Amino acid sequence: YLSAQSYSPYTITSISKSHSIGNVIGKNYVGGVIGQDYINHTKLISSDKSETITRNVLNIFSKGNVSGNVFVGGIIGASQRNDLPKDSRNLPYTVVSTIDSSYHTDGNVVGKGNYVGGLVGFDSLNTIKNSFYEKGDIVGFSYVGGLTGFALGLIDSSFVEGNIRGFDFVGGLV
User: Fold this and answer.
1) Cα distances (angstroms) measured from residue 164 to each of 1, 83, 147
2) Residue 46: exposed, middle, or buried by beta-carbon count in 10 A (0-12, 13-18, 19+)?
3) pLDDT value of position 124
4) What confidence score (pLDDT) does residue 118 get?
5) What is the pTM (predicted TM-score) of this model?
6) Which residues pair with 55 in a beta bridge?
7) What is the rounded distance in angstroms from the CA atom of residue 30 to the CA atom of residue 34?
8) Could you tell me which residues come within 8 angstroms of residue 107 by beta carbon, excluding any fewer than 6 positions away?
9) Would you say 60 and 14 are in contact if contact means Cβ atoms under 8 Å apart?
10) Which residue, 53, 65, 70, 121, is most buried by CB atoms nearer than 10 A?
11) For residue 128, which of 95, 101, 163 has the smallest C-alpha distance?
């Protein structure tokens, strides 16, 4: 669980130069390295600080099969935030979140339900760049993609080599 819920010294805001080798099996929010990456805007808004919160997943890889029900990804099961407040133009902070130079290889990513991706099952936070998925199959029901099953961020200089199968909303990248 990678979190930015408060300005606590115990909050992990970045992870780098790390990896996971082996099969990862779970129910929901299953990732090869991180199950859930979450930002709680409610707690951050209560702060009087005005700053940029930088969150990075850099040089991470996972190798092996990853399987679960929903929110399943080769690196991160779900990277998300709670709902933004109605007047989100006046937030006291900016979040910059990036997945960079990371990959999943030599294994399948399989979800029985929705939001299944080679790198991230569900992504409402990140810019994904210089990253890839290769040497495996990605299988899910709906919202199935080579890099991510669902994305609100940007994708740059990334690729997928593998088979992608699903029923609805299936794409080579997203």
Assistant:
1) 27, 30, 10
2) exposed
3) 83
4) 97
5) 0.86
6) 97
7) 7
8) 23, 32, 62, 63, 64, 65, 66, 74, 135, 136
9) no
10) 121
11) 101
